[in-house]
Design a protein that fits this description.
Structural class: alpha/beta
Number of domains: 1
CATH class: Alpha Beta
CATH topology: Leucine Aminopeptidase, subunit E, domain 1
Radius of gyration: 15 Å
Strand order of the largest sheet: 1-6-5-2-4-3
Bound molecules: adenosine-5'-diphosphate
Shape: globular
CATH superfamily: Leucine Aminopeptidase, subunit E, domain 1
Number of strands: 6
Order of helices and strands: EEHHEEHEHEH
Length: 174
């Protein structure tokens, strides 16, 4: 079973096999985690993203899907890019958010990754309420049956995010 761990910190500093990026569908960089990953990882990541845009993802990566590139200079082997849904009060996009975690895990398992670091996808610029995003993230990862991935580490950027994830984990475990 995949072991779930929670920490506060910066995802770009994690020594894991695969770091998950909350990318945007252009795959060409953005703010938040995405900006930090490209800044610290160097130009090699963007080069591979551009190559993906000119091959199988001509229209960009759809929300809920995931694709891997090199991790460049980051202390990881791969970055797995996934595009979270923008939160909408009018439309339930939970299934798309769950799909980001499922697809990122599937890609990691295919690569043979043992350890993974996740950010709180969609909780920044895409405005997903933290408590709900945390519950979706953790319940999805708990339900996944992985072959190689032994640790799914959630790297929460601030105390509020950490507290939301901790509470959701308690709810799921009780
Ligand atoms: P999205 O567009 O999916 O909302 P963001 O990058 O704007 O993605 O934010 C997702 C989450 O990642 C937010 O909770 C934000 O605080 C957090 N975050 C931003 N930078 C980092 C970082 N370097 N490491 C870990 N988490 C980060």
């Amino acid at each position: 079973m995949t072991n779930i761990t929670l920490i506060t910190g910066d995802i770009t500093e994690q020594k894991v096999d695969a770091i998950v990026n909350a990318a945007n569908s252009s795959l060409l960089g953005g703010g938040g985690v995405d900006g930090a990953i490209h800044r610290r990882g160097g130009p090699e990541i963007l080069e591979e993203c551009r190559a993906l845009r000119s091959s199988q993802y001509g229209d960009g990566l759809p929300a809920g899907q995931a694709v891997a590139t090199t991790a460049g200079r980051l202390p990881a082997r791969w970055v797995i890019h996934t595009v979270g849904p923008v939160f909408s009060a009018a439309e339930d996009r939970s299934e798309t958010l769950a799909s980001c975690y499922r697809e990122a895990l599937r890609v990691a398992d295919e690569l043979g990754a043992r350890t993974m670091a996740f950010p709180a996808i969609s909780t920044g610029v895409y405005r997903w309420p933290l408590a709900d995003a945390a519950y979706i993230a953790l319940s999805t990862v708990r339900a996944a049956r992985m072959k190689t991935v032994g640790e799914a580490r959630f790297v929460l950027f601030d105390q509020d995010a950490y507290d939301a994830f901790e509470e959701a984990l308690h709810t799921l475990e009780s």
